[in-house]
Amino acid sequence: MPSHVPARLRKGRTHDADALTRVFLDARATALPYLPRVHSDADTRAWMEHVVLPGTEVWVAELPGTGGAWEPAGFVSLDGQELEHLYLRPDVRRRGIGTLLLEKARELSPGGLALHTFQRNTAARSFYERHGFTAVAFDDGGRNEENEPDVRYRWSPSG
Q1: Is the pTM of this model over 0.70?
Q2: Which CATH superfamily hosts domain 8-155?
């Protein structure tokens, strides 16, 4: 981890639902403005609390905030070898936090990882490719609720 990133990681908890929902919504609005909004903010928050947090392994990256409190800057969510989500607050991109979260995912899934990202999300695609992921399949968008073409990536420790 670069020395300029004073981030710490901790396991996600149910009470993180509000903060992680905000990270998720803000990240998508900034990085993926072309995506249709298929759920309300309240529904997204309920999904975070009742599906993501209890149903996947979630790790939260925190940064020191005002008054010395630590604040969520991003999170990663894993379901076995499937990297379900990796989102960062827009104001903390390019500070090594995504790499820190990805390293945690690799630690938790040392045999390999797979994920989907949208084909138009060139920043995410570049990030994963820089970290050794390879595109293995392209889809027309029929498999996701946004109907946005996506790409399947895989990473294995053997390369």
Answers
A1: yes
A2: Gcn5-related N-acetyltransferase (GNAT) (3.40.630.30)
